[in-house]
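Weekly modeling sync, notes
Attendees: S.R. (lead), two postdocs, one rotation student

Agenda item 3: backlog of single-chain predictions. S.R. asked that every request posted to the team notebook include the full sequence so nobody has to chase files. The rotation student volunteered to paste the first one in as an example of the format we agreed on. Action items at the bottom.

Example entry:
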Amino acid sequence: MIEILVIAIFTFTASNIATSHPSKVILADSGKKSAIVIHTKEKDLVIDKPNTYVEISESENIKIKKISDSEIYSKFKDVIEYTPKKPISILLYFKKAKNELTEESEKKISTILKEIADRKMVDISIIGHTDTVGSNEMNAKLSLRRAELIKRLLLDKKIKYHSLKIDSYGENDLLIQTEDNVSEPKNRRVEVFIKWKAS
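Predicted structure, as returned to the notebook:
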């Protein structure tokens, strides 16, 4: 689904409306309950149904009209493609006591590469973790090696990025809380956090 507007309030007066180029206010389908309130001299108009819009002009006859996803994309392609995508976090899991991805997580590398490419220029954080098997010192080193492995895998693919940093927490930030010396697969992980380049 295309998401352009969620909740917005606009105020228009006759003095700032160009008759020859009326403004369009669109409520695209975001998958969430949302609305737009338009204030004019004559009345307040509420748009609360997905894929509807109004044209704002000096005419008092303002009507709510329907518009399809394809029409929105056709008319506002440049805006849609420029709009920053939401940050995303992807978890990669590792084999027990090893610096080696599970087979399922190996397949996620292509997903990470696509998410980076779709955002064009990004800030990337790679954070390594372990379970509680072994000493704190050993796990601190292992979690760092895991983060460095993912960094190398991404750089080998010639990704474009604004910043890329790695960090590691060893066994100090468990996804699943366990006692010491517990082999928990979901704690043996690297988190890859991808967000649009900070302005």
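Discussion: group reviewed the output briefly. The first helix runs from residue 69 to 82.
Action items: rotation student to repeat for the remaining queue; S.R. to check formatting next week.
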